[in-house]
């Protein structure tokens, strides 16, 4: 019986790295090998399966249509191989070993300072590596196997994932002192669309807030230029407009030392749901659910 030669994980890693970077030098650097080693590994893979995966020119690296399909298959294979190690880890102590978690920017600075001390104290064997990314980027990293779980706000289309809801985070309207009537809550009808400042595209908080207001003209006329909630507060404090803030940011003191007032938004669905999500059928589901319990208790 003739021997069967299969692609190695290293060859697949080289191929995915080249696809991600679009450049042999950068792919080699990311893979911690020389460029000649990476290039030779990909050529060996092409020889092995008998097809060209990458068109090489002096200026550009272009994947063939079949190459694109094989890259996606390679990502799944690498992700499954990575989870083999997880199978051994979950048999040991809960919440131990390395875990990569992505957190969206409208959660990270407000929730992490409260939860990390408890995790270090109660689960000292857990090595938690954190990435701050927008929701879309975080979900992409999750499905590509570069992160293990994501702390984000729902609703958001993150693909085929499992989710553990943690708590609801109410939305507030923040405005310069004296600009709006001192009512206990603010209705969407009270918001001047020409004064509304929102986070730029890519931040799901913007979509949650606009959906809660249910005023199409707000989306059309709002100024979307903020890169962070702290930046938004500074603009409001300088009288440039009003904005939307989640309760967790207010509870964390984002309005301290400003002349900004915040009142709850009086509307249906005037909150976002904070959740921990992970890939379906992950062998570390038990760890993720335990982590979700800790996060929910430490809000």
Automatic annotation (TrEMBL):
GO terms for molecular function: DNA binding; DNA-binding transcription factor activity. Signal peptide: none annotated. Keywords: DNA-binding, Transcription, Transcription regulation. Residues 7-64 form the HTH lysR-type domain. Gene3D superfamilies: Periplasmic binding protein-like II, Winged helix-like DNA-binding domain superfamily/Winged helix DNA-binding domain. The keyword Transcription regulation applies. Transmembrane segments: none annotated. One of its GO terms (cellular component) is protein-DNA complex. Belongs to the LysR transcriptional regulatory family. This is LysR family transcriptional regulator. It comes from Sphingomonas psychrotolerans.
């Amino acid at each position: 019986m003739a021997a069967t030669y299969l692609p190695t994980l290293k060859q697949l890693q080289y191929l995915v790295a080249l696809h991600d970077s679009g450049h042999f030098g950068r792919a080699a650097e990311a893979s911690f090998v020389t460029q000649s080693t990476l290039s030779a590994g990909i050529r060996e893979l092409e020889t092995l399966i008998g097809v060209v995966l990458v068109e090489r020119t002096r200026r550009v690296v272009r994947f063939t249509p079949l190459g694109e399909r094989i890259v996606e298959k390679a990502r799944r294979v690498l992700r499954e191989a990575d989870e083999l190690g997880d199978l051994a880890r979950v048999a040991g102590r809960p919440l131990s070993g390395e875990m990569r978690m992505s957190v969206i920017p409208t959660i990270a600075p407000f929730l992490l300072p409260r939860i990390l001390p408890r995790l270090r104290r109660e689960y000292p064997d857990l090595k938690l590596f954190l990435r701050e990314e927008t929701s879309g980027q975080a979900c992409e990293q999750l499905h590509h196997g570069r992160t293990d779980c994501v702390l984000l706000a729902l609703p958001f289309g993150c693909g085929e994932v499992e989710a553990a809801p943690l708590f609801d985070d109410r939305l507030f309207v923040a405005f310069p002192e004296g600009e709006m009537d001192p009512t206990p809550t603010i209705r969407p009808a009270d918001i001047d669309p020409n004064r509304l400042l929102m986070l730029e595209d890519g931040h799901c908080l913007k979509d949650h807030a606009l959906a809660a207001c249910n005023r199409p003209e707000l989306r059309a006329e709002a100024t979307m230029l903020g890169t962070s909630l702290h930046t938004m507060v500074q603009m409001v404090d300088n009288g440039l407009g009003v904005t939307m803030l989640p309760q967790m940011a207010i509870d964390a003191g984002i309005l301290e030392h400003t002349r900004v007032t915040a009142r709850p938004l009086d509307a249906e669905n005037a909150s976002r749901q904070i959740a921990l999500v992970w890939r379906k059928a992950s062998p570390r589901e038990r760890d993720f659910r335990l982590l979700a319990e800790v996060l929910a208790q430490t809000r």
